[in-house]
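User: Structure tokens for both sequences below?

Assistant:
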Amino acid sequence: MGGTLVGTPVSPPLAAKPNGSLQVAGFAFSATGAVATGKPTADDWRQAMAFAERANSGVMWWIGDLLRIGEAQYSDVASEYEGDGKFSYGTLRNVKSVSCRVNLSLRNDKLTWNHHAIVAELYVVGPNGKQTKASAKAQKVWLQCA
């Protein structure tokens, strides 16, 4: 996967365009790719790469958290989304379950979403040390394997 650019600041800020693309530092991101807009610099490229890496690591959390919030606040709209076929019912159920089980304060950006999904299986009702210890152990094992 090469070197990581995570931690590189994404500046100028992210901007949504009328066509649905996202603009970051001289690059437009769409559902099907990224293109340079204008003449981006090497620093612009680094910022765009950092954004793409952060987006990749966060998208499952975003979907899960939005499903959780949607179900709590807009249940009729959330149920429409769950039936639109973009994701299987099982995928949506799993993503939402992990987001519900792993509190924001226990999420570790050095671990993948899949690592957290495994830790979520150790969840016990209420915040407790087990989940925190499992996350720390998963990070240690992952770092040893990297």
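Moving on to the next sequence.
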Amino acid sequence: MLRLENPDNVCYANAGTNALLSSPFVTRFLSSLPNNNVQLNTVRKLARIQPNQITNLTELWGIVAQNTNKDFNQDNRQQDVCEWIEDLQNTIETKLKGDLQKDFSDFFQMESTITYKCYRNHKSQIKEVNQMLRLPLMDEKENHLNSIDAILQDYFQEQRIERNCHTCDSVSALKSQKITTYPQVLVLQYKRFTREEYKIADQIICGTWLKLGTASYKLTGIVVHVGSSMRVGHYYAITCCWETGKAYKLNDAQFPKTLQDNELDEEIKNAYMLVFSKTNEEADVLSDMTIEDPTSPARKKNRQEKESMQSGDEDLLTPEYVPVRGRQRDPDESTSINEIGYAITSQESNFIELVK
């Protein structure tokens, strides 16, 4: 939960970074990175930053711009927050190496099998990998969809498209899509802007829990856009505590505002992007889990064990190291996860309570 200054119209970066760090998977992973890369240290420091401390993304903004060769804020136009999130993800992934790179990429990777079937039942399949689901708000008949359930049903339903069959002379096919690998961190973007960049301001009903296929997810982050078009307006973020569900509105450097349930519902309806974290066996023990040292010789072995982990194998999630405000944990200190996803000790809890 970052309080970020906005000196150069970078609210898109502020909101996008807070949304990405809203996932406990992402924050805990980044905060545990080894201190051996100057550029990754910038991200590492943000993931470890003290609550209520005001900072800015000037350094991170420059790293992402250099890595992507993009001139952000060109012509003083408002940038799209989803582009920033993708560029930030790609930048972090590029700077990581080996297992760390794969671990970070796997958080967001959704793999699907797309099947095409012509009227003569000739089939062909392709694999598709996405790190973000971009969801239309209208069906093919331009009927407006007003709930996440209706949007996802429309997105994954079988549809007829124009496609030449490689076996016969058919020029149309039925297209179906099935998810084969579910991401740990599910990022959804509503297509709220038309080709002319005007905004579709429909309210979309969505809860704080989401069932997608065989996977269950809990809402951890929201990005809201205020304005009439993609290039004009303002972005802010909302983070939801993994343990308590309490929501906090993060608007640049302003003090975080705690939202009541009805206020959160309204923010969700007006969301531009949603970030969900998977509630699987590994996620359910987040509050009891600490991060293993990424430089440990046993890291690769532990990672393989966790991939094949069966229910009840919580011992596999017991590491040797936890980042606590950038220092080694005292064995006599108790550790918990506070409402904004950081590892804190009992000695620090009084300070955290003041912040809340």
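User: Anything stand out in the second?

Assistant: The radius of gyration is 21 Å.
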